[in-house]
Structure formats: C-alpha cells, structure tokens
C-alpha cells in the first residue's frame, strides 16, 4: 500500500449549473445548485484514499460549520486529518464553480488555506518520514509549499507538485521538486515564455514534468529525452472540476509503476471523474479503476 502525504487546500465548493457561462455584467437563470466538498489538496487526498493509499492530509480550515463538515467528510473517506489545523482568523476556503456542458469557470477565495504556515507543516514531520511520497499544490502559501519540499528532501521522499494556480515558481522550490504536474496553460506560465511549444518545453525539462492536455491525454519526456504520450479515454463529460486533482493523485499512487504506466492509470481516473458532477463524488475506487481499464482494453 502506497503511503501518501498530501499538503494542500480544503474548500467548500458552491456549484452553479447553467446553459452557458455568464459574461461580464450578465445575470443568468441557473439550472441547479450544489454544495460539495472540494479544494485541490482535499480532492487529491480523497482520490488517493479511494485508490487504496494510506493517505494523510496537511492543511487548514476555518472554525466554522463548513470546516467541521469537511473534516468529518474527509475522515469518512479514510483520510487522516490529524494534522489539519483550524483557525479562527479566517473562514474555510470557498470556491464558486460555474458549470456549463462539461466546461467550468471557478473563483476561489482561499480563506483559511492561506493561514497554513511552515510551522503547521513542520508539525507533520513524522508523517514525512513515514510516507512513500509527498504531493503538494500551490493553493496554499508558497512558504508552506516550500517547507513541505524541504521536509520531503530531508527525508529522501519524492516530492510531486501540482503547479496550480499558475505562476512563477521560486528557484529553491524548482530544485526540490522531483516531478511537476501541469496543464498546458500552467506549463506555459510556469516554464515557458508564452510562445514555446509544449513539446519543446517538456524537452527542456527532461524527467521533470507531466503535462495534462484535456481530451488529448497527457505527456512526459523522460530523462533520456524520449516523449511518452498517453491518449485520453473517451467518456461522456459532465463536469471537469477536479479532474486534474484526480489525475495527480492517481499518478502519485501508481508512481512505482513508472511514469508512462502511471500516466495511463491517471488518465483513466480523470476520465472516470468527469462522468459526474462534483470534484469528489465520482472519484473511483481501486476496483472500479481496474474494471474500467479491463473494459477499455
């Protein structure tokens, strides 16, 4: 069993579904509204736990009804939350998700997520020592992500970073990340000049980046300069929210298989995740993943 430590954000998602996405100044009538658990860190932790990994989460929630409810939900999913801090200084993080025919636009208010400090991360030092790998993302303060990278480095653990939200990555963090997970936009923002083609960017960072390409699948250039491409699995798409987090968790859980095979697993999990609404509700179990792959051929 993989032992995975996730350091990341915990949100409550407020999902509004309409026939199209609203434009600036426009008021639309919606079709449905849902309140669902979310946050990149929480999504990754739940995805990993459902795939059979022993999963710990380091993060921060507000001392409010949303935060308490999300912690109960995470525990029910099998995620250890002993090192999730609670703050009275900010509300639990929230995301407004506007969904339309499989596409989405999201506004995130980080709230308590931005109260996660390096000191909070250090309280989980024993988990860094026990884990097989560490998975983090940038929905938390950069200082907290850098502390997670430093602890993973100290204990010799692979450190996987979802480079989202997109932006400049400090040189010290660049040096300590074993593998970056990006979509094409994040790849261009974090590693390119806005003009260099994605294959060329992967070639400049051999062995360091996996890029997701939506319905084109995923790609990676290994340390020998060989390009590996994994096609997407064709499924009906209802909601893409959280698909990247599902991919990241599956890649981490299957890391020991090698990146090309782990990408296949991750593309399958992401495909299964987009077939229903919500970032966590349709995440598959390990058995469901194997059944899907068997049927996919």
Brief overview:
The chain has helices spanning 40-50, 65-76, 118-122, 125-130, 142-154, 171-176, 184-191, 198-204, 243-253, 259-273, 286-296, and strands at 3-7, 11-17, 32-38, 54-62, 79-87, 93-100, 103-109, 133-137, 159-162, 179-183, 209-212, 218-221, 227-230. It is α/β, with parallel strands linked by helices and 297 residues long.
CATH architecture: 3-Layer(aba) Sandwich
List the helices and strands in order. Answer: EEEHEHEEEHHEHEHEHHEEEHHH
**Percent range of helical residues:** 25-40%
Shape: globular
Topology at a glance:
Blueprint: E1 3-7, E2 11-17, E3 32-38, H1 40-50, E4 54-62, H2 65-76, E5 79-87, E6 93-100, E7 103-109, H3 118-122, H4 125-130, E8 133-137, H5 142-154, E9 159-162, H6 171-176, E10 179-183, H7 184-191, H8 198-204, E11 209-212, E12 218-221, E13 227-230, H9 243-253, H10 259-273, H11 286-296
Helix pairs in contact: 1-9, 9-10
Overall description:
- With 297 residues, the chain is α/β, with parallel strands linked by helices.
- The protein starts with a strand and ends with a helix.
- The radius of gyration is 18 Å and the shape is globular.
- Helices cover 35% and strands 26% of the residues.
- It contains eleven helices and 13 strands.
- It has helices spanning 40-50, 65-76, 118-122, 125-130, 142-154, 171-176, 184-191, 198-204, 243-253, 259-273, 286-296, and strands at residues 3-7, 11-17, 32-38, 54-62, 79-87, 93-100, 103-109, 133-137, 159-162, 179-183, 209-212, 218-221, 227-230.
